[in-house]
Amino acid sequence: PEGALPASRRIESLGDDGGESYAEVSTRALRVLEQKARVVVFGSSTGWLVFYASLVFGARSVGYELLEGRVATANETARECVFSSERESEKNTASVSDLFAFSCSDALSAPLGENAKVVVLTSQCWDEALKTRVASRLASHLTVGALVVDY
Length: 151
Fold this sequence. Notes:
Layout: H1 7-10, H2 22-34, E1 38-42, H3 48-57, E2 61-65, H4 68-88, E3 100-104, E4 116-121, H5 128-141, E5 147-150
Parallel strand pairs: 1-2, 1-4, 2-3, 4-5
């Protein structure tokens, strides 16, 4: 599609080899997040990127992580966040619990959902073969205009 980065570029670091600058990608990401788009994080660890997207931008976000202990920590933090928000505001119209979820899964099999507009990859430990397979999957499953950021 016109204006889209090829799959191989989506997995590379921002600004390398003449790609979009950090400022350009940041501006585009903020525009997408302001539309309350769904955010997917692969390699979500204990959930901080998911919480950030949800609590700062109000984006419905899901985090996928391979390590069960990290998913358990993220889910416990989510429960505490929900409890705290419900206690502080009985009139809260948008429940915090609707904003985020965590699951133990990998980037090749986890569901993207129909409205995934921002996908965050934490691929520091991924080998090149995995990066290529994930890039191909995202290129074929995401809609035009979706943003993939490798953190």
